[in-house]
Amino acid sequence: MPELPEVEVVRAGLERHVLGARVTRVDVLHPRPVRRDAGGPEGFAAALAGRRIEAARRRGKYLWLPLDNGDALLAHLGMSGQLLVQPPEAPPERHLRVRMVLEGADGGPGGRELRFVDQRMFGGLSIAQGGADLPAEIAHIARDPLDPQFDDEEFVARVRRRTSGIKRLLLDQGLVSGVGNIYADEALWRAELHGERPGDRLTKPQVRRLLEHARVVMSDALDQGGTSFDALYVNVNGESGYFDRSLHAYGRQDEPCDRCGTPIRRVAFMNRSSYFCPRCQPAPRRRRTPGIGPGTGPVIRTVAPD
């Protein structure tokens, strides 16, 4: 699934290529990508026709294009979604779902087409009424670490109040957005923290260091165009990212750790996978704390240590 750097690459591409363009026609070629739009395929197309694209914005993994009437085109790429800017004469892509014909894109003659291509169709487009500044549909999503308004100290405090494992917290979109499975594993590897370490057992410096590593790894990926393992992730020009060549943990099961040489381990995690170095990122040790059992003497419970 595209993560924050990949989505930001797409946002930046849209900002370069479609700002100021007017939508002259919309063809919904499959209804599923607009399933969340209240107006259905016809209403979606009608709401976009004639509107001018004013900006390209992002919150976490969501993109939106503010329109000249105060509404917005809201997009999520899902597992395999692509937003491509193509010349009108380009042949249709195999999994083309929605075509938006643009007039005046880049200030050049002839216009262009903004195409939503999605093989697996978990992504989608919708009209966010009054959503130019921030669509109400995504207002609950937290800012991401690359957002200038992200509050580091609030994040640290909230993490240290939670008992969940730190990787689960990194993937909590209400706490911090944009850090997906790949970059969570990479940030944890760099910070030498196991993903199961509970948030309330991390020190403030540990959380701050992890946050900074998350920023660095996502910024590095952004500089290289994102992470691409197959043809499903591309930017608006159809070019794949190549940050996968720089990964230290994710996808490297049984390969030697770049830091200590220990084979990278993979474990199941939330219907996905986690990759980590068992030496550099030791699992949380447990300590035995005595308690009182009813009529049976002391009982033992396990808790994670500091």
Care to describe what's here?
This protein has 306 residues and is of the alpha+beta class. The protein has 2 domains: 135 residues, MutM-like, N-terminal (N-terminal domain of MutM-like DNA repair proteins), CATH 3.20.190; 125 residues, Orthogonal Bundle (Helicase, Ruva Protein, domain 3). Helix content is 22%, strand content 23%. The strands form 4 sheets. The chain has a 4-stranded antiparallel beta sheet. Strands 2-3-4-8 form a 4-stranded antiparallel beta sheet, with helices on one face. A two-stranded antiparallel ribbon has the order 9-10.
Give the gist of this structure:
This protein has 306 residues and is an alpha+beta fold. It is built from six helices and twelve strands.
Features:
306 residues; alpha+beta; N-terminal domain of MutM-like DNA repair proteins; Helicase, Ruva Protein, domain 3; 2 domains; 22% helix; disordered C terminus
Secondary structure: number of strands? 12
CATH fold topology of the largest domain: N-terminal domain of MutM-like DNA repair proteins
Shape: elongated
H/E topology pattern: HEHEEEEEEEHHHHEEEE
Cross-sheet strand order for the largest sheet: 1-6-7-5
The CATH C-level name of the largest domain is: Alpha Beta
Number of helices: 6
CATH hierarchy: architecture of the largest domain: Alpha-Beta Barrel
What value does the average pLDDT take?
A: 86
CATH superfamily of the largest domain: MutM-like, N-terminal
Distance between the terminal alpha carbons, to the nearest Å?
34 Å
